[in-house]
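Note to self: user wants both folds in one dump. Writing first protein now.
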Amino acid sequence: MITFENALDAVSQLSIDQQEMLIDIIRKRNNELRRKQILKECRDGLVEYRSGVLKPMMAEDAIADLHSYLDESEDA
């Protein structure tokens, strides 16, 4: 298994152009993984909505719920 430090050492041995290409490739892969994660979360949300776990609500109510949740998270 490659450690983070080993990966950094290997990258530092690449030319600047190769490092920039690597950064671009990693960024694109990361963006694609994030898109897939967002898609899964959206699909999960739709399943919950369609099954009745999630209920429709007004935007103001949703925002109030989010504020309440964030306040509870800060207290924990």
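First done. Writing the second protein, which came from a different request thread.
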Amino acid sequence: MLPVTRYAFLVSPSHNRVYAQAAPTLAVAEVAVLAERAFEGRLRDVGTTTLGGLPYVTFTLDDAPARADAAGTAAADLALLSALSSAYALFVVEGPADDARLRPVARAAVDLFDSDLLTVQKYAGKTNEDFTRLLVNVTVAATDRPRDLAGPWTTRPDGARRRLRVLDPMAGRGTTLNQALVRGWDAAGVDVDAKDVEAYATFLRTWLKNHRLKHTAGLATLRRDGKSLGRRFEATVGATADAYRAGDTIAVELVNADTVRAADLFPAGHFDAIVTDAPYGVQHGNRASGTRGAGGRSTPHDELTRSPVPLLAKALPGWVRLLRRGGAVGISWNVRVAPRTALEQALRDAGLEVLGDDAPGPWHGFEHRVDQAIQRDLVVARKPR
């Protein structure tokens, strides 16, 4: 039997009162997903415990196996726990339950950049940063390399190392792209709204300059076979000046184009994870062409609908082409405008395997209220090997 350590973490305080109420439950589901996917059965007993009048997420973790790589496993374990979306402060729990003492644990530095990259940008309809991180985490955990969450690198089948690659095919103003950039992953996005693409380009260039990070950044026209496919913002940045000079850079790009054409914009099998927040169908409708509102481009036969399912059904085949085998797709949406079964069927029709399909478990533990009109959930599916 391996020694067992009991952990507890304090959930991050949130400026959003409604999300703060749901955060402990969401955190339990997130930890349970990692327990299933990344810890080989060593993480158990996930739940919430009130300590000192505050709710903590608690669990037990078997220590790293006594193998040659035990130290590396232990370091990766800590990095995985440090990457959790709502983990504010991590502790080891010592002593009996009725007289427990908390010993602080120094979290691993899994983020390469300041958190203001995620928080300083403000606009109507912005998704909560903690939820975006949660969606990214559970999607990467669903891939065939779940422990890639522990760092910025993934290993190709030929043994070569490269940065993890994340795509948001309905990127808006880049919340997902910024989450990936903070982690040191290459990020790409597609959005049909030219104003959102320009706003993100302006924001990121300003942020990079203000933080005096070595980078290149620019907007240009994307052309293929002599035809314009849309405007493309591209940036490369080094975590340090030395890394930039050595060519160790992180790539970010956002293309102004219809998401149903995403497969024309990037190489097949290029991405490890596809993560997106589907339109909630509250202020505007959606069209299967990829347009998000009544005033955008559309084809004459597109029917305006509050549900994202018609758009997803048309776009998913192209997204799946861009996903490597063993990669995963994670989508959040408003359950008030589309049932879970409809999204799951769209994912299956695109050739993906829905996680929690046979035994729901933690994959069905993420539904929560956002406001009066939005009850949000997420669904994750994997591309077969």
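Dump finished. Worth passing along: The mean pLDDT is 91.
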